[in-house]
UniProtKB/TrEMBL annotation:
SUPFAM superfamilies named among the record's database cross-references: Acetyl-CoA synthetase-like
Descriptive protein name: Fatty-acid--CoA ligase
Family named by the database record: Belongs to the ATP-dependent AMP-binding enzyme family.
Gene3D superfamilies: 3.30.300.30, N-terminal domain of ligase-like
Signal peptide interval: none
Length: 517
């Protein structure tokens, strides 16, 4: 099924039901279909043809949703873009996608124009920010209001629906091309994996341009006939107030999205128990590993429902694994057992064999949801696949029960003196030092050992450790060959807009003495 047909089907089943809520703005499924037809008309009138890649750079607003379904109705390709990108970063994506027209939030218009002055930017949310000058001919919301609804172009389920860009931690971002069938299948698998229901009201507070909020949680609501409650931008206390006001039932976010409300309410002198979170039944966490202590803190605070931890890759839709509520304590730190429904998973050792309990290998995934290819990058596409299997580049260790624990990225693993060193293990141990505010571990080429281990450390406010002090601290925590031989202090670790450390820049720093940021 294509995604426009999916929406139309849901609207026939639940015509008067709320599809999206954004503050005081509420739209039923009938409304959403109408808005998608108007948006499709706007894109057609902008001179775009079937298959055009259209970047959408917004926050969590109705305009994003209308543009998304309008593009799919017009047989065009949605390219959701990180709204935190700088102009040079955005310029790369716009150029790579070949876009001629884009949709942008009014507050991001200056960045978009600086990044791609030759692109026609249709502006949403202009009415909410009257101080921002917008040409009426480019006011997306106004153009939609005036447009004649259009049924759109015929769309096949094999047509490309999305161009998802990876976070670019090891190289320039790559564009994953996903079909309509693949994305609708993600909705079905996530529904089966987490027990989503048509009665759910899912709070979308994480950026909707990200593949997980968009494909794992927003679109399943449209698939099932649930309601997506949009919070324009994440705010820890506003999150709690929205849950209470809208009686939401499900939420997804990284660990910090759960910890920040605890910190913010305490700082503001607010009583945690005064917030009514009893409507919630699904707390879903992902984006980074969550340790036992952190998960216990989260579970103690958010008590009204069970926690799921999810792991996936943009190249896969994203789908992957789920750690179920019953396993959160006994398997803390794991990403789950085998693949979620519809997903096959293998762990392959570096010598090509299936990993046994206690062994470490690369996670391979197989599913109908996988991308078609990387846009304009056949070499990377060929490297990413082994037949039907997608090679994630993530290393995981299997325990005796078959649960997976992420060890490292293959590109980040250090081989020193013939021994494999997993940088996450070293980083986690070093973070226990009071003088370490943040840390990343990378390898430096060494003539005799192959690589030597270097700790790049952000010192704590009271001062950081010397390399000797750090080595002494780690001596009782790690095998000798895992302990860093050098330490490079920095003011901050270079990160991409999604918060992931850019280790390729750190490798350049420790090898050449070049700036990391």
């Amino acid at each position: 099924m294509d995604l426009s047909s999916m929406l139309d089907s849901t609207a026939r089943k639940f015509p008067a039901k709320e599809a999206i809520v954004a503050g005081d703005r509420r739209y039923t499924y009938t409304d959403l279909v109408e808005q998608s037809r108007r948006a499709a008309s706007v894109f057609r009138d902008a001179g775009l043809a079937k298959g055009a890649n259209v970047p959408v750079v917004t926050l969590n607003t109705p305009g994003f949703v209308f543009a998304t379904f309008g593009l799919w109705r017009a047989a065009m390709v949605l390219a959701p873009v990180n709204h935190k990108l700088t102009a040079p970063e955005l310029r790369f994506l716009i150029t790579h996608s070949g876009a001629e027209v884009g949709v942008v939030d009014a507050t991001l218009l200056d960045t978009a124009r600086a990044a791609a002055p030759g692109v026609r930017w249709l502006v949403t949310e202009a009415a909410a920010f009257p101080e921002i000058e917008v040409d009426p001919r480019d006011d997306f919301d106004a153009l939609m209001a005036e447009a004649e609804p259009w049924d759109g172009e015929p769309v096949s389920e094999t047509d490309i629906a999305e161009l998802l860009y990876t976070s670019g931690t090891t190289s320039d971002p790559k564009g994953c091309l996903h079909s309509h069938r693949g994305i609708t299948t993600v909705s079905a698998y996530c529904t089966a994996g987490t027990g989503l229901q048509s009665a759910d009201r899912f709070l979308i507070a994480m950026p909707i341009w990200h593949s997980s909020p968009l494909n794992n949680w927003f679109l399943p609501m449209m698939f099932l006939g649930g309601t997506a409650v949009l919070l324009r931008e994440y705010h820890p206390i506003e999150l709690l107030r929205t849950i209470e006001k809208e009686r939401t039932t499900a939420f997804f976010g990284p660990a910090i999205a759960y910890l920040a409300p605890l910190q913010a309410t305490k700082a503001a002198g607010l009583d945690w128990e005064s917030f009514d979170l009893s409507s919630m039944r699904l707390w879903i966490a992902g984006g980074a590993l969550i340790g036992k202590d952190t998960m216990q803190t989260m579970r103690s605070a958010f008590t009204s429902g069970g926690f799921h931890q999810v792991y996936g890759m943009s190249e896969m839709g994203p789908v992957g694994t789920t750690l179920l509520p019953a396993d959160q304590e006994r398997k803390a730190g794991s990403i789950g057992h085998a693949g979620m429904p519809g997903v096959d998973l293998r762990v392959i050792t570096l010598d090509g064999a299936d990993a046994k309990p206690g062994e470490t290998g690369e996670i391979w995934l197989r599913s109908d949801t996988r991308m078609r290819e990387y846009l304009n990058n056949p070499e990377a596409t060929e490297r990413a696949f082994e037949g039907d299997w997608y090679r994630t580049g993530d290393l995981a260790t299997l325990d005796e029960d078959g649960y997976l624990f992420i060890a490292d990225r293959i590109n980040d693993m250090i081989i020193t003196g013939g021994e494999n060193v997993y940088t996450l293990e070293v980083e986690n141990a070093a973070r226990e030092h009071a003088g370490v505010a943040d840390i990343a571990v990378v390898g430096r080429p060494h003539a005799e050992w192959g690589e030597t281990i270097v700790a790049v450390v952000v010192p704590a406010a009271g001062g950081g450790p010397s390399v000797e002090e750090l080595r002494e601290f780690l001596a009782s925590r790690l095998a000798k060959y895992k302990i860093p031989r050098d330490l490079v202090p920095v003011e901050a670790l270079p990160r991409n807009p999604s918060g992931k450390v850019l280790k390729h820049r750190l490798r350049t720093l420790v090898q050449e003495g070049a700036p990391a940021a």
